[in-house]
Every structure is written in C-alpha cells, then in structure tokens.
Amino acid sequence: MIHTRGLARDFRAKKEVVKAVKGIDIDVSPGELVAFLGPNGAGKSTTLRMLTTSLRPTRGTATVAGHDVLAAPVEVRRAIGYIGQGNGVSHNHRIVDELVDHGRFYGMTGRDARRRAAELLELLGLAGMAKRSIGTLSGGQRRRADIALGLMHRPALLFLDEPSTGLDPQNRANLAEEIVRLRAELGMTIFLTTHYLEEADQLAERVLIIDDGEVIAAGSPAELKATLAGDRITLGMADEVAAKSAAALLEGSARETTVSGATVILTVENGESALPRTLRALDAADLPADTAKLRIPTLDDVFLSLTGRTLRDADAA
Ligand SMILES: Nc1ncnc2c1ncn2[C@@H]1O[C@H](COP(=O)(O)OP(=O)(O)OP(=O)(O)O)[C@@H](O)[C@H]1O
C-alpha cells in the first residue's frame, strides 16, 4: 500500500540545508495499522506530506495506493484520506453540510454523499450533532468530525497526522479505540504519526521509529520491546557478596547481568516466566533474594536503547 525507497527531503533555511528526511525505506501492506513514532522535529510530518503529495521529495521514490507520488499525484489523492493537524473545516458550517460538500468534491452524487455522511456520523457517535456547527463541538468531537471528513470518499488508505494532539488523556483513549474499531469495521489501511508512546503501543500492529530523519527501528511493539529493550528483573540480595554469587549463577540464563551493591539486574526474555524460574534457582543455590521486581519495558525503553535518550527528553529538547 505504501512503498518508499531512499525517500528524502531537504529544506533550505537561511543558506543552511536542513535534512528533514534522510532517505527512508517504508513498506506498508494492505490492511495494516502502522504508527510512525518519533520526537518533535524527527521528520514525521515531512514524510507524511510527501506521501500525501503536498510536498515534493528531494530524492528517492514513493508509491502510495499503487500510484507514484510524483508521476500521478491526483490518483494518489483520490485513493487516500488525509487528516492533518487541525483540519481545514470551517467553524460556521453544519457538520453534515461539511461532509456532503467534501463528498461532492470527490465526485460523489448528492444522494450518495448524504447517505455516506449519515453513516459516518453514526459510526463516529456524532449522529445527534449533525446539524451543529463545527465551532460548537468539543476537541474530541471535532477530531472525530475530522476523521469522518477523511473517510467520506471511502479511501482504502487513511493518513492521520498526530490524531490526538491537543486532546486530554480520556479523549485520547476514546479516539484510539475509535480508530481501532473503524479499521476493523471498514478494513482500511491506516498510517498515523504520533509522539505519544502509549498511543503507538496501544494502537499499532507495527511501529516505525523515526529519529533525526532516519527510520531507526521497525516491528510490532512487542517485538521491539523484546529485542531492543528486554524485560528487567531487579533482585535485592542480602549483601554484595551474595549479589555477586547470584549474578555468577544467573549469568547464563540472562541476556545481560549487572551488579550494583546488593542489587542484581537481569535483562531477560519473557520476564513473567523468567522471574519464578530465577527465584527457584536462587533458593536451590541457598542464595535467597530478599526482594524481586519485574519491569516490562515500554516503547520509551526501546527508544532509549536505540538513541541513548528517552522520547520525552528528545521532545523537551
Ligand atoms: N519548511 C521548512 N523549512 C525549514 N525546515 C523545515 C521546514 N519544515 C520542516 N523543517 C524541519 O525539518 C525537520 C523535520 O520536521 P517535521 O515537521 O517533519 O518533524 P515532525 O517529526 O513532524 O515533528 P512534530 O512532532 O513536532 O510535528 C525539523 O527540523 C524542522 O524544523
């Protein structure tokens, strides 16, 4: 559904060249829900703008929904839905009129557009608000109206740029559920950008992590966490000597073992089964642990292991 090779975009700003996207390869299959995750300024929006044909690549190729973004931009636009950050919906229009106009723009008949608008308003829980103007909606409702707009012409591929920016945690969670449900009901391919870790983790089957214009990792959230971060067991031993003996005993069964004072930290695969196994091995060797803690990694741990900084720090910078 999306294929890019060496896709790059430079910007010229005050005689300096900003390499916003540095030659990325992306492959998204039909039906996938993929999140493009990275800190502020990583190149997410620039990539999305190239894929949705609003910005020309400096180098490389991109095929979206079967069409080349440079050779056939009109075909690309007809095949996709794009929901940007704060879409251009007019605040004074009634929601239903906005949707119907949008459908007409894409060549739908008035009747088909009205039927589709009613269907989407129902699907997105906005049916009772069809005649309200956009300006009277809450932030979360407005986001859902934006999504309805992007879906009017039944695109096979939907791009969502930072769908939950500006929403409170509750509305963010609601929107995430909505996106998952829509994908299931409409069978679309969805490509969304986000800098919310929880959102990528909860929503996406596959995450592409972008940093400084480069894709630095790709995989399902579970795969990325298992291969790049690993589960962590922290054991509190009686003293430093016991900790060193425990570390020597457990070294073979952990990916990484470190000792700090009376504490042993193990990085393991599948921590939930490794923890009881570890405690049994320690008991059998007469080296009982006083405390044991298991920590399952987040995507932030993945980002940390890849870049040496957390996504939150990178955002703050
Ligand atoms: N028109 C432009 N002129 C110069 N530099 C630009 C321009 N547009 C983007 N950039 C730079 O390109 C880099 C990538 O920006 P981009 O907006 O793609 O990041 P992003 O990952 O979408 O960030 P955010 O999460 O903040 O939206 C940044 O360093 C940005 O300052």
From TrEMBL:
Entry keyword ATP-binding: yes
Molecular function, one GO term: ATP binding
Domain of life per record: Bacteria
GO BP term, pick one: response to antibiotic
Keyword terms: Antibiotic resistance, ATP-binding, Nucleotide-binding, Transport
Gene3D superfamilies in UniProt: P-loop containing nucleotide triphosphate hydrolases (3.40.50.300)
Pfam families membership: ABC_tran, DrrA1-3_C
Alphabetical list of InterPro entries matching this protein: AAA+_ATPase, ABC_transporter-like_ATP-bd, ABC_transporter-like_CS, ABC_transporter_ATP-binding, DrrA1/2-like_C, P-loop_NTPase
Domain (ABC transporter): residue spans on this chain: 2-237
Main subcellular location: membrane
Recorded topology in the membrane: Peripheral membrane protein
Places the protein is found: Cell membrane
A single GO cellular-component term on record: plasma membrane
The protein's name in its UniProt record: ABC-2 type transport system ATP-binding protein
Species for this entry: Stackebrandtia albiflava
Lineage: Bacteria, Bacillati, Actinomycetota, Actinomycetes, Glycomycetales
